[in-house]
Amino acid sequence: MKDLLISIFRGFLIGVGFVLALYLCSKIYLFGISGSVKEFSNSIGQMFIDIAN
Question: pLDDT tens digits, residue range 1-32?
Fold first, then answer.
């Protein structure tokens, strides 16, 4: 049972990491086109603030 929980948790973490990576890549791609790096770093800071709260 413990092994099952660990594998589910690991799968969950991998899924979350994958979604986060996709999200960041799309953000970087879009901001790369518009060339607003400052706004991009602000949005990442905002994202961490949202996660912390």
Answer: 889 999 999 999 999 989 988 888 787 777 66
Q: Which two tokens stand for residue 46?
A: 């905002």
Q: Which residues contact 40 (CB under 8 A, 6 or more apart)?
A: 27, 28, 31
pTM, 2 dp: 0.45
Place of tokens 């879009």: 30
Q: Which residues contact 43 (CB under 8 A, 6 or more apart)?
A: 27
- The DSSP secondary structure of 1-53, one letter per residue, reads -HHHHHHHHHHHHHHHHHHHHHHHHHHHHHHHHHT-HHHHHHHHHHHHHHHH-
